[in-house]
Amino acid sequence: MSLDKAHSLLSQIHEEDWSLTHPEGSYASHHWRVIKLISKGEKTKAFGKYEGLEDLVSSIQAPIKMMTFYSILPGGELHPHRDLSGAFGMGNLRLHIPLITSPRLSFQVSGKAVPMQPGELWALDTSYLHSVANHGASDRIHLVLEVEASPWLRQRLPPLGAR
Fold first, then answer.
1. Residue ranges of the chain with pLDDT lower than 50?
2. How far is residue 53's CA from residue 55's CA, in Å, rounded to a whole number?
3. How many helices and strands (H and E) does the chain possess?
């Protein structure tokens, strides 16, 4: 995604659009916020509020199961964990498009830093241990998608074993 498109999406987000990711339970935190755009393969009402998403969705030739703006506020942390929803072994992948990040953000996969930059597209197999911590002074916002690992997507991935 171009930085211009990333900035355009950001300019359309308003503070009242956000809701807490986990308002209750063991993962409850006021540091994690979301705007759900696609849930269980269906577009939400919020999807139509953001110009440019339709073009992005049509460019990804893989069924999209989930699409969300994820925000982690300064001081927010998510402990090391694994998810099956974006596990390649289960036929899925999680895609991250950073919109806002900072050098003080720590995103780790299997103990290694992943230096995502705005506008880049990253594929993450969430069966690997991963964590994030925002030690910076500003919000971190990513557009996150969970997609089926279609032949089109598999062609764009590095070969197995690549480092």
1. none
2. 5
3. 3, 11
